[in-house]
Design a protein that fits this description.
Immunoglobulin-like, single chain, alpha+beta
Length: 416
């Protein structure tokens, strides 16, 4: 038993001596962080050996089961660095075979460069050494300026949320809210407020909740801020509802005004129709012809007397007829009013036709009055001519009764 343990110990010692004399590869840190856009350097240290043929860098694939991605490599005996297609112009390997270093450099880093990288040393004469090592590169992205919003009604006794979110940031930013009063003095958050993942919940808000709220988005690189002004209003100050109420009241007032105007217009139309009934005279003819030729005074006088009698008779007869016609018109108007009541939907057309009828009746009435005036003027002219003739005849009769005038040159009769 003791012999067996002695042999096993000798084997371990031999292995340790062999490994300590073999090639080893080491990356000092397991994680390297760099800001996006900056230059990243991942160091690789190995045991110098003249038997090393190459030092290469590879990167993990985007998909787990895909083959690894070649980044760059150093090869002997040409002692040249080769950069592969995907990283050409952006990657380089700085190799010092005497010191045993092969540092990977990546320029203009992006989010896609965040992955694991492996440094490999190939030494054909070393079969037991650690010939590779891995490290992770994390490309950090500063938080973008966050966007602050208010979710909910900013009225008394309501519950609202203040939200804060950065569109980008690696690693994921953390958020913190601070509150300032209207005098821009820092104050604690309300007692029941909760700040979780960029959402600040405010419960049962009041005037004291009003103020300025600032959100800070932070990760390992830098921070960014946004602010929002909270103004808590009484429910009566809700401008949208107030505007709706005012609009409704104004609309109702306009509708009532239109109805009143329509009623007043219809009433005036009714009163006007009852006050000024018009009837078109039937079988009535007027003429303005002057008498032809001359007649003697007796015929003229007789005709004048007949005309006066006819006019006097005409003035006595029409009242009964007019009263009957007025009664008929009033009955007809009542029938039309009932008809209008049954056909209110057609009121506008009928109103327009009635206006035209009224204007037509009024024009006919004016024409009749003008003709009456013309006839009156004509009779006055005739009367004046009759009076002139009568005066001339009277002068002629008077001249017959007077003795003849004595010529001034007649000789005087001798006296006895």
């Amino acid at each position: 038993m003791a012999g067996t343990l002695g042999i096993f110990g000798i084997c371990l010692l031999f292995a340790w001596v062999h490994m300590s004399s073999g090639t080893t590869v080491n990356i000092p840190d397991k994680v390297y962080k760099i800001a996006r856009g900056d230059k990243a350097v991942i160091p690789c240290v190995f045991t110098p050996s003249k038997s090393i043929t190459s030092v290469t860098w590879t990167a993990d694939p985007d998909v787990k089961d895909d083959p690894e991605i070649n980044v760059a490599g150093y090869f002997t005996p040409t002692n040249k660095v080769t950069v592969y297609q995907k990283y050409k112009g952006r990657a380089n390997v700085v190799v010092d075979m005497v010191k045993g270093t092969a540092n990977l450099e990546l320029l203009s880093t992006t989010n896609a460069d965040t992955r694991d990288y492996e440094c490999k040393v190939q030494d054909p004469e070393d079969e037991l050494g650690l010939l590779s090592d891995k490290a992770s590169l994390v490309v950090l992205v500063a938080p973008s300026p966050p966007i602050c919003n208010i979710v909910g009604k900013t009225e008394y006794f309501e519950n609202i949320q203040l939200t804060c979110r950065s569109e980008e940031g690696t690693p994921t930013p953390s958020y913190k809210w601070e509150s300032y009063n209207v005098n821009n003095v820092l104050r604690p958050l309300p007692l029941k407020a909760t700040d979780q993942n960029g959402a600040l919940s405010l419960v049962n808000i009041s005037m004291d909740t009003s103020g300025y709220y600032i959100c800070t988005s932070t990760n390992e690189i830098k921070s960014a801020k946004c602010n929002v002004t909270l103004r808590v209003n009484p429910p009566s100050m809700n401008m949208a509802s107030t505007a709706g109420i005012i609009g409704g009241v104004v609309g109702m007032a306009v509708l009532v005004g239109i109805i009143i105007c329509c009623c007043c217009y219809c009433r005036r139309r009714r009163e006007k129709a009852e006050e000024y009934p018009m009837e078109t005279p039937e079988d009535e003819e007027f003429t303005d012809k002057d008498p032809e030729g001359r007649e003697d005074d007796r015929d003229i006088h007789v005709n004048s007397e007949e005309e006066r009698r006819l006019k006097s008779a005409d003035r006595r007869d029409p009242p009964d007829d007019r009263s009957e016609r007025s009664y008929d018109r009033r009955s007809d108007y009542n029938d039309r009013r009932d008809h209008y009541t049954d056909r209110r939907d057609d009121r506008s057309d009928r109103t327009e036709r009635n206006d035209r009828d009224d204007r037509h009746d009024r024009e006919r009435y004016d024409d009749r009055r003008d003709r009456y005036d013309d006839r009156r003027d004509h009779y006055d002219d005739r009367r004046d001519r009759y009076d002139d003739r009568r005066d001339r005849y009277s002068d002629r009769y008077d001249s017959r009764d007077r003795p003849p005038s004595v010529p001034p040159n007649k000789p005087k009769e001798p006296r006895n």
